[in-house]
Specification:
- Strands 7, 8, 9, 10, 11, 12, 13 and 14 form an 8-stranded mixed sheet that branches. Strands 2-1-6-5-3-4 form a 6-stranded antiparallel sheet.
- It has 9 helices and 14 strands.
- The chain is globular.
- Strand 12 and strand 13 form a beta hairpin.
- Helix content is 29%, strand content 28%.
- The structure holds pyridoxal-5'-phosphate (PLP).
């Protein structure tokens, strides 16, 4: 089998969902689909290493949480789980010794209709060696809201993984204009949030710290795996608000995400970050071995 693999989730008249393999090179989604016209939907990107999906259950749980936040119909996780596994099985020998991504997409469907649109897409997204080995230059960018936005304005959907990533992409273009590779969003009250497609982990006073999801950031599945690994090695981890000043003086900073896994931040707004290359190399290996 060659990549990519596309599986559509198809509803019959009685609402039963089945999974059908389709040709990814031909149109499969209506131009009237709200996912296309409004970015009204949710998604997950699941890393696949040597044929093993990583953090599949946390990804499915986050898909269900995003669906709840957007008032979408609850996804049948059994169907989605088996579609993800089927897409990997169909990729067959293309999974051997390599890293893939499976994208899981659920939209509100066609405007005026009552049926969600869903598909699973397995493809080769790497390589990530450069960012993992050499690290990334990161700029802080103001996200334009306070760190309590999830409580004050839940309709802004912070903490849901929605399809509306135009802002996230614009931030990455701004980073490129500033000669950087990536972004750390900061709240108007000076709290570190997350990257446009990653979680921030900082080593502060010997403790691995990340921003709690109560501050309107996504619950990162890779960060969770990093913390599990750190705990099992006797290290201390903490979920708490991190100020920008703390980030600037951290011993090391990483951005974690399902595809890239972990990338060390080597400069923050142009200022070198100390870092720990030997630790990072080990962490990459352990995250890939999951
Ligand atoms: N935060 C945002 C906004 C993201 O888009 C992502 C990537 O999916 C993450 C955090 C990291 O999440 P994960 O490690 O589950 O990929």
């Amino acid at each position: 089998m060659t990549l990519p693999v596309l599986l559509m989730l198809v509803h019959d008249a009685s609402g039963v969902v089945s999974v059908e393999e389709r040709d990814p090179a031909t149109g499969q989604v209506s131009i009237l689909d709200l996912g296309v016209t409004r970015g009204d939907g949710i998604f997950e990107s699941i890393g696949v290493v040597d044929g093993r999906p990583q953090a599949l259950e946390p990804h499915l749980a986050r898909l269900a949480k995003s669906a709840r936040m957007l008032d979408l119909p609850a996804p049948d996780l059994g169907v989605w789980r088996s579609a993800v596994l089927q897409s990997i099985a169909l990729a067959g020998s293309a999974t051997a010794g390599t890293e893939l991504l499976v994208k899981v997409i659920l939209t509100r469907g066609i405007e005026g209709g009552d049926t969600a649109t869903g598909w699973v897409y397995c493809f080769d997204a790497g390589p990530y060696d450069r960012e993992r080995d050499r690290g990334i230059a990161v700029v802080t960018l103001d996200r334009g809201y306070r760190s309590d936005v999830a409580d004050t304005s839940p309709w802004l959907l912070q903490g849901a993984k929605t399809l509306s990533y135009a802002v996230n992409k614009a931030a990455l273009r701004e980073a490129a204009r500033r000669g950087a590779d990536d972004v750390v969003f900061v709240s108007t009250d000076g709290i570190v949030l997350e990257g446009p497609n990653s979680t921030v982990i900082a080593l502060i006073d010997g403790i691995y710290v990340t921003t709690p999801s109560t501050l309107g950031v996504l619950e990162g599945t890779t960060q969770e795996a990093f913390f599990d690994d750190a705990r099992s090695r006797g290290a201390q981890v903490e979920y708490r608000a991190i100020t920008v000043d703390e980030l600037r003086s951290a011993q090391a900073v990483w951005l974690t995400s399902s595809g890239r896994q972990i990338a060390p931040v080597v400069t923050l707004d142009g200022v070198p970050v100390t870092g720990d290359p030997a630790f990072t190399a080990g962490a990459v290996a352990r995250l890939l071995a999951r």
